[in-house]
Amino acid sequence: MAKLLFVSHPEVVIDPDIPVPRWPLSARGRARMEAFAEVLVSLPVCAVWSSDEQKAMDGAAILAARLGAPHQVDSALGENDRSATGYIAPPEFWEVVAEFFAHPEVSVRGWERARDAQSRIFGAMEQIARQAQPGLSVVVSHGGVGQLLTAVLQGVAIGDEAKASNPSGGNYLLLETTPLALFSTTWRDIDEIEADPLWADLRRASL
Predict the structure, then answer these.
(1) Which of 4, 22, 74, 199 lies 20 to 30 angstroms, CA to CA, from 56?
(2) Predicted confidence (pLDDT) at residue 116 exceeds the cutoff of 70
(3) Other residues' Cβ atoms within 10 Å of the Cβ of residue 130
(4) Rounded-to-integer distance, Cα 76 and Cα 121, Å
(5) Residue 151 gets which letter from DSSP?
(6) What average pLDDT does the segment 178-205 reach?
(7) Which of 133-150 are b and which e, b meaning 16 or more Cβ less than 10 Å from the residue's Cβ?
(8) Cα–Cα distance between 170 and 62 in angstroms, integer?
């Protein structure tokens, strides 16, 4: 049986002088992904995917190296295109993000529309699901990507989807592959994976 594990990248190094897509994981973010990888060793991970943004590639590279799985990159797994504004400092950034989710049919400040980003992301995840091998394929992407994907899979309006538990990132969601669907609607923190009874069930079933 094939399943997908969607993971939002954890903490990054915020540098206004570097384009946002090139921000790397911070020391804290790397440590969290390394600990996550140690837990996943006990599961049959067959592939690791990521967007082409540095923070996602950093997280995927950590998993791929520890798990001995190939790492594949798909730019369609990236965040919504925000190049029209570049870096926006908080709290203004979060105000614009709120507009982005509240008005999915509108290009907020020139950003890629939420509806267009959602269509792109869902298409990329469907493609990964179609070619998934037996075992667990891990997709390392972004929090906003996860929200847009969850809205599709829950069949709800953008903004009404189940939200991730940790605002710093590093959350995961398990998905079915045939068809692409939510295995559970509950987002969980990668730091708490060992306490998640879901994994004991999956190990017993050998996926």
Answers:
(1) 199
(2) yes
(3) 12
(4) 6
(5) H
(6) 83
(7) eebbbbbbbbbbbbbbbb
(8) 13
Query: Could you tell me the sign of the dihedral formed by the alpha carbons of 195, 201, 206, 207, in that order?
Result: negative
Task: Quick: pLDDT tens for 46-75.
Answer: 999 999 999 999 999 999 999 999 999 999
- For residue 50, the cross-strand partners are 73, 140
pLDDT at 42: 85
61-76 b/e (C-beta count within 10 Å ≥ 16 → b): bbbbebbebebeebeb
- The lowest-confidence range among 28-32, 155-159, 201-205 is 201-205
Specify whether the CB–CB gap between 45 and 176 falls below 8 A: no
Tokens of 48: 């690791």
- Say if CB 16 and CB 65 are below 8 A apart: no
d(CA 169, CA 71): 21
